[in-house]
Design goal:
With 477 residues, the chain is mainly β. Helices cover 6% and strands 45% of the residues. The protein is built from three helices and 35 strands.
Length: 477
């Protein structure tokens, strides 16, 4: 029951903070109680930064009870602004000539200081009396983190008040409605895919105020994609055209008013356009490394797979699964066979890319010849390679169980496999694969007819030149 009460209390507190009305002022200024005439002037804060030992007669409690709140200055015909309303209580003393009030933005490290002086005759007459000082001319931004100090003039050590303060943000209904930085605007957009242009129309933002629009790639922050465009507040046309190179899931439209610390609005309309993500596959022939790097953060399972000839299904290669939320996926010592592919699986579906399918990389072939009760297996390749061969029983489309010994063979050589009558049949296959790489596709020659001399069977494809960039050829959904 206690936890429920606490939750209800927190909800009430947050609701009150979001719905709290900010007090209004028409002019900012300084006021002092007890009828004391006081005046303020801007100060650098440097001259009063070094403190002095306080006189023995001066109590450290001469300055107390500083309170900070936010007020909103609204003047007809101009935008509203937020100001700090700072109140403090000082016990008048002949050793004190005034106060210094300073604010430091912990976000920007920008400081503002004001020196408050009292009329000497009046303050001497009220020596020992408490006077309340109120100052509300320090302008602040939405959601700013402020450090406020109040010191005596002269600055006596250990006679100081300080407090951190958070200015209300745009979730406060009053701030969100009247402060320009919270008026982020609204977008309408149109995509011209042929010209690779996004036209953006902006509405519901302050009149006569310039507005920035840009395209960006959203990672931890939204990173620039080209220069931003400016919509002039005085112009009647509130639209811009932005060029893009690729429609990616993380491509966003971002807009904000041309004022400091303005609230930004983002629209990411291409989140389901993941197809272009799978194109960035790179092969390095020198290291035999196949790599893919996402252009956007994406939750994806990556596998190497063997493309089946019969139904275009791509069967996963064992121990090749990798998760990639945002990092590069890399496979070392990869076979460049045309049927070795990469499979990308997300919540939206699966895509298969076969980077070696166009015959631009060295590949290998397996060929067999039947002679009496023996099968002779040959391998041809444009590069040096080692292979392993076995006889297997294909119980399923992608599963072939070994029924004999493994045989090793090099390019240019052959191996003879003795086939008994029991080993012959439509499901019996000769399976070969490369053993000098970490990832290879197994090729199969099946439906071997024993006892027929001179019959030859082959599988595999030849390949010629090398290149570094590859395109897609298959897609599974």
């Amino acid at each position: 029951m206690i936890s429920i009460h606490v939750q209800i209390l927190l909800i009430i507190l947050f609701w009150n903070s979001d719905c709290q009305i900010i007090p209004r002022i028409e002019e900012c200024g300084l006021s002092c109680s007890q009828g004391i005439h006081c005046k303020s002037k801007p100060s650098s804060g440097i001259l009063n930064s070094f403190c002095h030992d306080a006189p023995a007669s001066l109590s450290s409690m001469v300055l107390k009870s500083m309170k900070i709140s936010t007020v909103m200055k609204c003047v007809q015909g101009s935008a509203c602004s937020l100001h700090l309303n700072i109140k403090g209580t000082l016990s008048l003393d002949e050793n004190i000539r005034g106060l210094e009030i300073c604010s430091l933005s912990l976000d920007t490290q920008r400081s503002q200081c004001t020196n408050v002086r009292f009329a000497r005759k009046k303050s001497k007459m009220l020596n020992g009396k408490k006077v309340q000082v109120q100052f509300n001319c320090i302008e602040v931004n939405v959601a700013q983190h402020i450090y406020v100090t109040m010191k005596t003039v002269p600055n006596y050590c250990e006679v100081k008040l300080s407090q951190e303060y958070y200015v209300e943000d745009c979730r406060n209904s009053d701030v969100g409605k009247y402060i320009p930085a919270c008026s982020a605007g609204q977008f309408d957009y149109n995509v011209d895919r042929a010209r690779k242009i996004i036209s953006v129309n902006v509405s519901n933002f302050l009149r006569d105020q310039d507005y920035y629009v840009r395209l960006c790639h959203k990672w931890f922050t939204c990173e620039d994609v080209g220069a931003f465009a400016v919509i002039k507040g005085k112009e009647s046309l509130k639209s811009v055209s932005l060029k893009y190179s690729q429609l990616l899931p993380c491509l966003c439209i971002e807009g904000w008013l041309a004022i400091p610390d303005a609230r930004r609005i983002q629209l990411c309309p291409f989140e389901n356009d993941t197809k272009a993500l799978w194109d960035n596959i790179v092969y390095n022939p020198a290291t035999q490394t196949l790599a893919w790097e996402p252009a956007c953060p994406v939750l994806v399972m990556v596998n190497l797979c063997r493309l089946m000839k019969s139904n275009d299904h791509c069967e996963d290669i064992q121990n090749s699964s990798k998760n990639s939320p945002e990092k590069q996926v890399k496979y070392s010592r990869v076979d460049t066979h045309p049927r070795l592919c990469m499979k990308f699986t997300t919540k939206q579906g699966s895509w298969v890319k076969c980077p070696f399918a166009h015959g631009e990389f060295p590949a290998w072939k397996m060929r067999t010849a039947a002679a009496a009760e023996q099968i002779q297996v040959f391998f041809t390749s444009q590069t040096k390679a080692q292979f392993s061969v076995l006889v297997c029983n294909r119980t399923q489309l992608a599963s072939c169980e070994s029924v004999g010994m493994h045989h090793s063979v090099s390019v240019g050589n052959s191996v003879s496999i003795t086939m008994s009558q029991e080993m012959c049949g439509s499901t019996i296959c000769i399976q070969g694969w490369r053993t000098d790489v970490d990832y290879s596709v197994p090729l199969q020659i099946c439906d071997i007819h024993c006892g027929f001399c001179g019959q030859t069977y082959s599988d595999g494809n030849s390949a010629k030149a090398m290149t570094h960039r590859m395109k897609s050829v298959h897609s599974l959904h």
